[in-house]
Amino acid sequence: MRKSYTRLLLLLLPFVFSLQASAQKYEAENATLAGGATKQSCTTCSGGFFVAQQDGNLTFNATPPKAGFYNIYIRAASTGGSKINKFEVDGNTLDFSFSQTQYSTLKLVAALQLSAGQHQVKIIKSWGWINIDYLEFEEVEGTNRFNLNQQLVNPNPTPEARALYDFLLDNYGDKIISGVMTLNSFDESTWLKQNTGKEPALLGLDLMHSGRGYAWYNDKAPIIDAKTWYERNGIPAMLWHWRDPSRTTEEFYTRNTSKPTGTTFNISKVADPSSAEYKAMLADIDYIAGMLKELQSQHVPVIWRPLHEAAGGWFWWGAKGGAPLKTLWRLMYDRMVNHHGLKNLIWVWTREPNDDDWYPGDEYVDLVGRDVYKDGDHSSQVLEFSDMNNRYGGKKMLTLSETGSFPEVDNLVKDGAAWSWYMPWYGNYTRESRYNPLDLWKKMFAHEYVITLDEMPNLRNYTRQDQIVTGIKDMETDQRAFTAYPTLVQDQLRVKGSKAIQTIDVYTQVGSSVLKLKTSGKEVMVSMTSLRPGFYLVIVNGTTTLKIIKE
Fold it and tell me: What domains appear along the chain, each with residue ranges and CATH number?
């Protein structure tokens, strides 16, 4: 009997060690403490201590044993109410909030790509005062981090909108689309052409002056510019700084001590169809819908990003909380899509921290953007990306819908931050070196990972490049499209393709399924550590069969 238990223990030991290796705990008391953070005894805490952050910061030296994807958790307790701090990994930062007064575990980021070796990790006070027990790094499979919606939320989009969405899907994770915001027709794209020799692929346009009756302004200027840009194979991206619908002011910012001339327009009246406010909002929506319908009649699709940065509260549409904002978003969607018949829009929600209660719902949103203004910060913003990808279940493509300083391409590639596009704001953000140096613009535009206007296909007749094929002839072609190596594998199998890899299925030689992955991109690392030695068949996209041997 003792011999049997010994054999069982020997069999289980590798499994136990693999579980221990997949997660690493970093005690807060072992971090470098500064600014008033103090180590304190705690009989219920891991290691017998916690760190009272107070006004201080903590710096950890994390050393994942191998390259891979990691979830990162914090175990902590608030000293009372919601607290906001900054989490930083290798210079990338993310704001996080913590409100539980009992020790609880919060996932800070999901599937963050890290190299083996040392990484500097920090908890930095913002509006702090939390008690921190430890950080934990959990190794996870990164190949299935995306499960992108393949269809637009509009069930019957125009062919042009469908083609543009297909283009975005094809390039997601493989390349990033360059963009720039404009104030006046092509001002910043022209400046970039003059100073770099190239233009960005995406052009930001604003409807803030339209529908206000300004004698000095041509209401249709954004529509004309969108059509012109699309005819050059560019992508028109529209937002709407929606001025006071009551016409009491010309403001879109709310009235406060820093903006005493702002509007007090009450969005909460969106719940009352008989109110003057509701009727004013509906009239503005109808006017803008008419303008967008002109583009539809001209076969022009639009990246449509309304009601942006709502949870920030600085715009009137976000001044009364999440419930009225969601009602207004859904009203706008229903009015534009079902009443006016707009089918050329790709709907983009702009996330702000702690806005889960504001999100209109997956059925009303095609993509999710993040507006990031961190002067001089050219990191990939990968923590924001990882947090958002986890928050939306990997279903929505993510974009840097506005930036001050945009990420450097080398950081994007290194960190695997698969933003769909980046769009710096107009004026100083585009032209001044303290935000984005001209040499960085040139580097971005010259890099193969960045798509510029001259590299764009004809979007009117664009067809999906990464579709799963089923025909016999296509299967024969597909069989040559993918490779896997090494064929004699120990831990990690690398699968590469000439087009996107969407599914990977691994079977034993007798046909038993042992591994199924959903993924994206043209190169995928597959962990084979859990498989027994032997012969396996790796089927890519349901069409390509590759043979490998696990040592």
Answer: 22-140 (2.60.120.260), 159-461 (3.20.20.80), 472-550 (2.60.40.3080)
